[in-house]
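Ticket opened by: R.M.
Priority: normal
Category: complex prediction / small molecule

The reporter submitted a protein together with NDP and asked that the result be attached to this ticket for the collaborator who will pick it up next week. Submitted input follows.
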Amino acid sequence: MFKVVNERKVALITGANRGIGLAIAQEFVSQGWQVVGSYRSERANAEFEQLPCDVTDPVSIENLVKQVEDKYQRIDALVINAGWNKDALLMRLEDSDLHQTIATNLTGSIQIARRVSRLMLKQRSGSIIFIGSVVGMLGSSGQTAYASTKAAVIGAARSMARELGQRSIRVNVVAPGYVNTDMTKDLPAEQKAMIASMTPLGRTAEPSEVAKMVAFLSSDDAAFITGALIPVDGGLGMGH
Ligand code: NDP
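Result attached by the on-call engineer:
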């Protein structure tokens, strides 16, 4: 296979076809990284390289990472952004939705981190970032499944940070508050207003505001930051 000799740092971002993932990919591009973004349903109309991946399917994860590995021989930053949510009060939570949430947000996240770590261990460097959520610590009515997975990735990330730190692999969690994307666009207006009013900064976020933090954490300026849970939530989760 044709191998690219690449002098730029390589970032792999899951769920990069829309929302926060797309903003992260665009931020990395603007900072001069070689970017590979994954999509599940359809590609973004954007200028970076895109490959398909369903993170609930281990074969699909293997195919994605193998292609990046074969082409660039390294991955400097992995951003585990792909996520799934369907709000339901506990009494109405369907098993199929519970399983889909865990498979996407937790199992798939750990599986791709494990696969990419293999490469990072060889290169003795790397940054892994999980996109968590303020609700992982705060809890949220109607989000038992989703909040559980977002709490769980903190434990996963911190365990990995302890295991992989000796090889200069850093693992962090970025926990956004309410961000204006497809995931939140169907919330009733009163609920959106209530969330904004509970947020000290009095507003919701744009995806680019999360992307800036992810790019910083992946940079050499964050070389001594690992195992951290960094909120980008306007103060909504303060104290947790
Ligand atoms: P969107 O719903 O806009 O996008 C979700 C992304 O995840 C899409 O790219 C989607 O791909 C991808 N995805 C979903 N399921 C799978 C799967 N099985 N395999 C691969 N990709 C998948 O969400 P956001 O941009 O808002 O969210 C991005 C991340 O940020 C998520 O982890 C979310 O939990 C987290 N987050 C979001 C907040 C918000 O307020 N928006 C707040 C806190 C955290 P496809 O388009 O193909 O479906």
